[in-house]
Amino acid sequence: MRQRTGLWPVLFLCVGFFSPAQARETNPATAAISIIIDDMGKRLEDGRRVLALPGPVACAFLPRASHTDFLARKANDLGKEVLLHLPMESVDGRRLDAGAVTLAMTERQFAATVENDLDSVPYAIGINNHMGSLLTRHPGHMLWLMRVMQRQAPLFFVDSRTTVDTVAQRIALENNVPNIERNVFLDNELSAEEIALQFERLVRLAKKQGTALAIGHPHPQTLALLEQRIPQLKARGIQLLPVRDLIDIQQQGENTWQASWSPSHRGAKNWKQSP
Q: Does domain 31-254 have CATH number 3.40.309.10?
């Protein structure tokens, strides 16, 4: 059975529901960002370097990758968010990682695969898509995903937006699954200069919109930039927040939020530790 004990559910049990935005020290003039590092679990040393990044950088783990279990547990110990990086079928027919969901699956096959993937990533509190330019444009399959997430709640969904035709976030919203979409890919191009440009785009978007979410990968060029730039964020008026806090900021005032995250939600029974 999947472990999802961590500090966050303990706070739920001890003090009841409260907004993460209320819990942190806020400054209304300060912009906020979150950063997710995808493709975790394949390479141990790269994973260790990600875990050493300062601040609440979220870690998205491929299910059944050779180092996922070990690194996910370490990430949780360090207070970093753990996500399932769910492999999904793409339009270009690229080879799928283990645990992928595909268009040809029945709902039962789809749900069983996602549930098994969640079980393989200890302490997962959210899901984002790996590839998925085909699957995320299909409302029916995204509805199947949200149904699984409702049964396993509280979980949040991050739409990586690997296609402009994605309907994933819309289906999440329609089904009251807490959600957010990616604003910037840091390292579609692996030159240090381009990664730096994308990081600055992230900062500009956050200052313009109030919040922005970036996704990167455990490439040496990406990690080198983050090691340098994250410690500079506070001086630039930028807060680096957990993804769940960024979702809360974006959805403050929506009636669906507390219903989705409250311990009274029908899925709250799943917050328990494996023996």
A: no
